[in-house]
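Re: the request from the purification team.
They wanted to know what the chain is likely to look like in 3D before they choose a buffer screen. I agreed to run a prediction and write the result into the notebook, where they can find it.
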Amino acid sequence: MKCVFPFVLVLAVSAPAWGQTVDSQGAKQLSDDLSRYVGKQAINEGILKVLVVGDAYEITFDLKAIAAGLPKQDLPKFDFPPYTLVVKPRGDGSWDVSSDFSTSGSFEVGNPDGQASAQIAIKDGKFTGVYDPKLAAFTSGASSMAGMTMTSRMPRQVTDFSVGSGSSKFSARESAKGGVDLNLTQAVADFGETVKIDDRAVGAIKASDLAVDVTAKAIRTKPFLDLLAFAVAHEDQDRVKADQAELKALLLAALPLWERIDGTYTFKKLAIETYAGDFGATQLSTAFGADGIEQNGKLDYAIKASGLTFPQIFPGWTATLLPTDIDLNFGGANIDLDSMAKKAIEAFDLNRDPPLSAEFGDQLKADFMAKTPKVVIGHSTVKNKDMEIALEGEMTFPGQAPEMKPDANLTVDVAGFDKVVANLQEAAKSEPEVGQYVPAALMVKGFAKTLPDGRLEWVVNTKADGSVTVNGVMLKPADPAVGDSVDDGDSGDDSGNDGGDDNGGAGAKLNP
């Protein structure tokens, strides 16, 4: 628990309203309340101290004392100054919280491959916020810093990381569905990371700006703290076994963990330096989204980039094929984690080894797949000045283990296909090896359906029986069943599939 103490401290300022009178009795009450989340040993050993300073409490924890409790061979050196929070009661049960998190220090870590070390420095780090114990969250807050540097050293590798000035804002409010709705925004300048191996630079990532935006709906902050308190009070394994009924109740109370979490990371003027050359993007963003532990949950991921550039390691003729902009969207749907979690919580027994049997795990997996979870490709595009490729589709695995062949549908639209072929034909005049790709491109075009706006479309269907169709044309029949004869040579479709699932070439659903 000492390892997570710094994180816990800002979440656990939870003295009751009557203890908000700033005096020695209030300091003791605050210490007792914090000990529920960090352990009484942290108080008794002076790792955490609560002092009265004017009209506020000063909560200080000694980082070196935390490190001293770890095995010397794991952490032979640790040199950081104490960290302090100033908390002041607001009279309504909430607290003003502030800190100067500027710091400079270093540590070493032992491992089988040799010593590893790191030096960290944060300049002019400031934090202020309002913490509400009833929500177990900051209702508002902000932080800023002038910059941060970190250098990590391993036996053969050195990594330098740095960011310039940065700031963040965050807020929370009670959710209508229980728990707390949270929002965090962060911006830093001059992001950079360089890696050297044997004193040779092997890679670097640089960006002029990095922006982060995270939102969470109905996150179960108080049940999380209750679970933390249980862990602190049950460091002994035998106590956990004796009170596992309480643990199960706390785990169930924490479900579904949250309703939804979404986040976006955006880099501007991104440059990736490698041995092969430099990759770049005017802007690159990655986004994620995840439902909580639900019966019909969704996962979403997205990668979007504009102004892509590539090093000159590719043949010249590929320049017309390389993308300048991408917008990729993928994820999952029909994900039933709720049933899995509840069944696992109900079934586990810490008095057994393992707590869940292998047979139970196999049944849990089978039940999960029986709900037909989907792999989803959302509307995605890849384009450059000559062409644009748009695609979307989904995949399921309807079979039973171990035979779980995919059932997939994919629609691909291409604008500018003829321009691509013309570019290949032109390149083949000076680079004859390119000519081998032209017949293949023309063959692919032969399977396409031309849409009213001139785009080419391929609707690809693969079935769990092994059959494959493109725009309704059977390219591969179903695999013969065990004991069935193979193709009887009558040119008929022995799969029993009439190839009718071609979606009519209705490419408009892509709306590229």
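For the purification team: Residues 2-99+203-389 form one domain.
Please add any questions underneath this entry.
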